[in-house]
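Dear Dr. L.,

I hope this message finds you well. Following up on our conversation about the binding site, I have prepared a predicted three-dimensional model of the protein together with adenosine-5'-triphosphate. For your records, I am including the exact sequence and ligand specification that went into the calculation, followed by the structure tokens. Please feel free to forward this to your student if that is useful.
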Amino acid sequence: MSHILSPNASIAQETPLRKKLFFNPPAESTPAAASAEGSQVRAKARHINGLVSGATAANGTKKLSTHTPLSLGEKSPKKRSVVYLDDSDEERGVNGFVAPSPRGNDRKRQKTRKNLSNGVASRFDERPRISALQEQRAQLPIAQGREAIVRAIEANDVTIILGETGSGKTTQIPQYLLESNRISGQIAITQPRRVAATSLAARVSIEQGQPLGYIVGYAVRFDERTGPKTRVKYLTDGMLVREMMGDPLLEKYGVVVVDEAHERTLRTDLVLASLKKILLARNGKMEGKGKSKANANPLKVVVMSATLDAEKFSKFFNNANVLYVKGRQHPVNIYHTATSQNDYLDAALRTFFQIHVDQPSGDVLIFLPGQEDIESLESSITTYANQLPQSCPGVTLCPLYASLPNAQQSKVFTPAQSGTRKCILATNIAETSITIPGVKYVIDTGKQKQKRYIARDTGSGFDTLLTTDITKSSAMQRAGRAGREGKGYCFRLYTEEAFNNMALSLEPEIRRSSLTSSLLQLKCVGQDLETLDFMDKPEPESISAALRTLWMLSAIDNSKSLTNFGWSMAVFPLEPQHAAVLLASVNHRSTFEIISILSLLSSSAPLFPDSSSQRESAASARAKFRHVAGDHLTMLNVMLAYDELEKGERRDWCRRNFVNERALREATDIRAQLRDVCEKVGVDWKLGCQGEEGPILKSLVRGLVQNAAFLQPDGSYKQAMGPSIIKVHPGSSLADKKSAAIIYDELVYTTQIYARGTRFTLIMYRAAAARSIC
Ligand SMILES: Nc1ncnc2c1ncn2[C@@H]1O[C@H](COP(=O)(O)OP(=O)(O)OP(=O)(O)O)[C@@H](O)[C@H]1O
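The resulting structure of the complex is given below.
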């Protein structure tokens, strides 16, 4: 993406950034600049993201001053202004509710915050903090409704709870249930994202004064911290679906709380539809309001969010009871730009520095659509932060996106280095549920990446990832990340009109993503996409594409029944195609190698990060790993070489070879877990082929046969089982080679459709296999 404020521009030499940016008086001043603090200096005035006036509002917050855009020197090709309009005449909560006056002593709370947990690590040894935490818990708005909430959940099969962001739903309701001693069995709380599940479990275990994994634990893919005494378990919705495979009626749970249900992820919808069936089986006739007749082990379902369509959810569960929790602990002032911004990165950069230079301490959370934007803004902020006057605090930057390894993700929860302001650059994984201690300001670009699956009636299809505008619901959730420990501020880089025109919520993921993996899991619990009662039915083409894929993998037979092979596939926490590869490797005696390759493919970080600034050095350093048969054997070479290293040598080795240590570390963990699963199901993972390519390629083809493409006269490839013309991704080691046919891992749609993870395989074998299926 082009970036107006190129980090390479030698601004400092030509025009002193500091002076122009922070100390030059504005050429013209807008007198009625509104304070970020709202009412005192608001008067429908504008906050213009420009040079800083130095004026300070009565409460100590400087005005976000007027007029001239950040002047970043001659090299900056454009100058823009970002204008904020305070959107209310009163201080109000994020969803338009009047905020309750903050209770308690703010300074005391600040002090307490320092002592609180801020990461996913357990801090059991800190008992004196517990009383402060109890005091804090008691001050949350939801605390007033504690007894009423427990009673409602007890009295009804299903309870829908709608409460503002930060009111205390996610951390408190499970604890109220636990402490009431009126609920038998475990309490599951599902989260759409793993970072939320792990950080919430850490926080709640500290509030309980227990080590993480004891009474309160979590379970996410490839990571679980629970024990025999665990009663409260935060888990991703995907994990709950997986648990149903072993426990179809979820009998170990007395309560299942589906949190952030408004997100309507595919797994959330699967959970909701399955719960409806489980309620019938465990509780008898579902009564909606009220509870069904006595049952030895009834299930209670709670559905929660700050921004859900309560009526729709209530209807889905036969007119279930809806509880509204009013109020949030701290208000959030929301500002919109006066004009729309074409370049959200530029606008975010300017807004960040305006806050950083002019506003009181407090960390900043910036929402961006994806990793690429995060890296670009990270580099711009670093460049300009280095040019700040010494008197100005430094900046600690923390990226946060899904493909960042867990250890890296949890860094956002640790306090900024002293004397610096923390700036978190996040995708929408930080949008719901989580509290990042210290965050006072949110900058919302209004953009997100949205996955869309393009199903082909041939059974092949691909996911596209496009940058789109967010929804109202996301905007509210993002604003809700501020104001969790004190008053917060949210700067939206879009106009109020744009906000008003936003869709209320996203189209449910079930209607726009691949259903293959879910269908396999459902088949294992005797359910089906075609018969389950979903809130919104999936598209028939997506169901047929999923059925066809499973049939091609031999996971189901002609009557759509699960085969033994399908059962075995579902045991592995892998995409069905990859599970088929793993099982095929047993026949081809290449499991040892295949597990390493699949671990790398499952790792969230790329093994070969794009290093555009050092492309040539990277290519020559990586050349020694290159395998003639393609990317996956190349990846295997890297992992085998990495395995040989002593621990102390690894970092330097990865740096010298331009490979991503994070990816390798994560893959090593995943590999250990896959080996564990193999041992449990009697697959000999030690069975290898000493790196011989034939057996490895035959195994890969078995799972990826749908991903074959044949060479066309113009050098592109055409899908064997789809109409798309695709190119080998420029990042592939085979980008400059031609083969009669290729197979690939995934198609990525940018300006054209690229095949990523490409390899030449046994061309004749693959081509024949693909054609016979066509
Ligand atoms: N890790 C943490 N560190 C400090 N305070 C926290 C932490 N987690 C929660 N809190 C405090 O507890 C409050 C309630 O958090 P909780 O996640 O339960 O709210 P919620 O109603 O579920 O919000 P949301 O809808 O945004 O998920 C927060 O506003 C914050 O004050």
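In brief: The pocket of adenosine-5'-triphosphate is lined by residues 116-117, 140, 163, 165-172, 203, 306, 329, 432-433, 435, 437, 480, 484-485 (CB under 6 Å).

With kind regards,
A. P.
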